[in-house]
Amino acid sequence: MVSGSGAAPTTDGIDRRTWLKTAAAGMAASAAASPALASTVSNGAGLPSGRQRDTLTAGAETAIASTTAGKVAGYRQDGIFIFKGVPYGADTGGPNRFRPPQPPTPWTGVRSARAFGPVCPQDKGTGRLNDEEAFIFQWNDSVEGEDCLRINVWTPGIDDGRQRPVLVWLHGGGFAAGSGHDLPAFDGHALAAHGDAVVVTLNHRLNLLGFLDLSRCGAAYAQSGNVGMLDIVAALRWVRDNIARFGGDPTQVLIFGQSGGGAKVSTLMGMPAARGLFHRAVVMSGSLARCATPEKARRLSDLLLAELKVTPDTIDRLRAMPYAELRRASEAVLARANPQPGAFLDVRRLGDMLGFAPVIDGTTVLASPEAPDLPDLSADVPMMIGSTLNEFVTGINHPERETMREDDLLAAVESFLPGRSSAVIAAFRRRTPQASRFDLWSRIATAPIRQSAVAQAQAKARHSTAAAYLYWFTWQTPVLDARPRAFHCLDIPFMFGNTDRCASMTGGGARAMALSRRMMDALLAFARTGDPNHAGLPDWRPVGEGHTPTMIFDDRPSVAFDPDAAERAAIA
Questions:
Q1: DSSP per-residue codes, 132-175
Q2: pTM for the full model?
Q3: What is the tens place of the pLDDT at every residue in 90-103?
Q4: Distance CA 317, CA 444 (A)
């Protein structure tokens, strides 16, 4: 997901630190999608067809639900019960900093749960200072604090005996920034109403608060390099133990995430503690992100402790330091330790550029998201894996890119693949001869992201008993003269049914909603059965040995068999 920072913009339209944080997230046909879903097709306002908006109700007798820690009061709007900011863990500050999550402190009476809770302290970057980015994404800013282990729930029913699928969203922002309500696109109302499903979003620890490896500093810090991921495991345990009271089925849990959130999904598949807590997995534009090796994690922690003048003997001082001091030191360390992007941000070097991230310690995390062989413990979890056509290389903030000249294209590709620019351009031009020069450059520069999604799906097919379904989101937004194209994050409002809510991303209206319904129905079918097929899509087969079918999500969804194989081979 795009966030921001104070660095100069790259040639790709999004400032450098912003990019690292983000990379480091047919109406009638759709209505006939399946008998189970046809009666709940959304009317574009997030409501089932024929249902009118009702008033919002909140009060002592409205939307009261029980959790293992106490009762919570949400509110009801348009047939959906909404609970926000429910604690799933204790405050992570002070003595709990760098420790695995602890259970929430129980409360008496009824706790109000009608507003999003605090988000993990973070550097949000400077995307908000770029007018076009701010217009497109419409970020929701929040209070920051280390009491941030909060969960949000949208559900059509409470204690009504129904067993609805549960869709748990993991936000993007790399492992450094973001939250479960960072974007309006994450609102779960429309998806819950459309599919008679329970939608969950959450906040967890990020950056050095979630991923600083201090394991050599004593048993109390043994899992410090992965506490941000252990927070997500704790949230999934909360779902297991509580979601039935919110109308959900704890045996039918799907996890899905975009960009860094997709990397978190993949990381969970390599965590023994997460085994059995989810049953389907969706990775959106997140296959390229990586965990940290123990060596890199140790190097960053050594540099940070030196910067703060802390030794293993005085390590407990870190628990009392203000976050601002920790952030200053981490920014200084990362600027020295990691290679910095040049004028062109090469996504192939992403793993070397990321900061604090989950650590492959062989105990808490067994494998990196991009590992060719997924651990056996995730072999029975089916996956949907995909990316967008243009990802980070778009015309956002830079209308002048639309007039790219041939020599500019050659120079850009030469910087990416020295000595091969002419051959690569020819390979990409062969399939789409009418594409503009900047369109060609966008697809060339982001091809490694598409390749990572294909590779993850192929690895899943080779080493798993469960299916892997591959998609490619190519739908072009009409906003800003269509310059943003199929940009990184654009598929999110389509999956959530929020294309009208997020009109600054999609343009809104019937065209976007038609595709959104098909994508929601695929997601919901996958959540229920592990198979995304429904009547509103052509036959979507899983990736298998020797064949790589890809669902192309556009105005007219279609299936293509490895359509860009020659292009990916040209940049290999």
A1: HHHHHH------B-S---EEEEEES-SSSS--EEEEEEE--STT
A2: 0.91
A3: 999 999 999 999 99
A4: 48
